[in-house]
């Protein structure tokens, strides 16, 4: 496996990346990219000049995973968006390698922090379906993962929960904000 920069003129990988977004998010976030057309729109945004778009491929140039970065705050902070790994390969370290690669890419560009939002739209955590305006920091401190929500993956990578956007996806459906300092 190797990690490369995905470029616009690599149509086979662009197509695979779009399909990966559909496939990887189908189970828990089916409205994220419900069709190949939606996936292609997202991938084309990921390929804009100021962004980072990296792909993990195997020796046959089959796409294993992708990750994107969006500059914010004059490039001092980057949003990780999105990270997707082939569903049958999740848990094998590809996501970790892509996240570490993004951290290195952000450092090379002078970035200090990476942040991301990880939605809870279907009751995957104890932050879902509760009043987050009451005792918010206690709820964050005591957060529980009920259905393999990805926030724990990011915590293992050194990210910390730095906030919550209550009702980001409807009543009782928050966005969990995680951040990590990547400067040395």
Characterize the structure shown.
The longest helix has 15 residues, at 11-25. The protein has helices at 11-25, 36-46, 94-108, 136-141, 151-156, and strands at 2-5, 52-57, 63-72, 77-85, 113-119, 160-165, 175-181. The protein has a seven-stranded mixed sheet. With 184 residues, the protein is an alpha+beta fold. It has two domains: 1-111, Aminopeptidase, CATH 3.40.630.30; 117-184, 3-Layer(aba) Sandwich (Aminopeptidase), CATH 3.40.630.30.
- Share in helix: 25-40%
Number of strands: 7
Instruction: Output the structural class.
Output: alpha+beta
* Arithmetic mean pLDDT: 96
Instruction: Name the CATH homologous superfamily of the largest domain.
Output: Gcn5-related N-acetyltransferase (GNAT)
- The appropriate CATH architecture of the largest domain is 3-Layer(aba) Sandwich
> What string gives the helices and strands in order?
EHHEEEHEHHEE
Question: Main beta sheet, described?
Answer: 7 strands, mixed
CATH class of the largest domain: Alpha Beta
| Largest beta sheet: strand ordering | 1-2-3-4-5-7-6
Number of domains: 2
Radius of gyration (CA) equals 16 Å
The CATH topology of the largest domain turns out to be: Aminopeptidase
Number of helices: 5
Beta-strand content estimate: 25-35%
Distance between the termini: 27 Å
């Amino acid at each position: 496996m190797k990690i490369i920069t995905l470029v616009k003129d690599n149509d086979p990988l662009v197509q695979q990346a779009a399909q990966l977004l559909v496939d990887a998010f189908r189970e828990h976030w089916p409205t994220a990219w419900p069709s190949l057309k939606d996936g292609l729109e997202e991938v084309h945004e990921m390929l804009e000049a100021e962004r980072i778009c990296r792909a993990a491929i195997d020796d046959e140039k089959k796409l294993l995973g992708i990750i994107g970065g969006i500059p914010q705050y004059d490039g001092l902070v980057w949003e990780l968006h999105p990270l997707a790994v082939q569903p049958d390969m999740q848990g094998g370290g590809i996501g970790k390698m892509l996240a570490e690669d993004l951290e290195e890419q952000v450092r090379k560009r002078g970035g200090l922090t990476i942040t991301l939002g990880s939605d809870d739209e279907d009751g995957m955590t104890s932050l879902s379906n509760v009043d987050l305006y009451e005792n918010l920091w206690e709820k964050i401190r005591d957060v529980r993962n009920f259905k393999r929500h990805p926030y724990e993956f990011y915590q293992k990578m050194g990210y910390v929960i730095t906030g919550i956007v209550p009702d980001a996806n409807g009543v009782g459906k928050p966005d969990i904000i995680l951040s990590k300092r990547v400067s040395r």
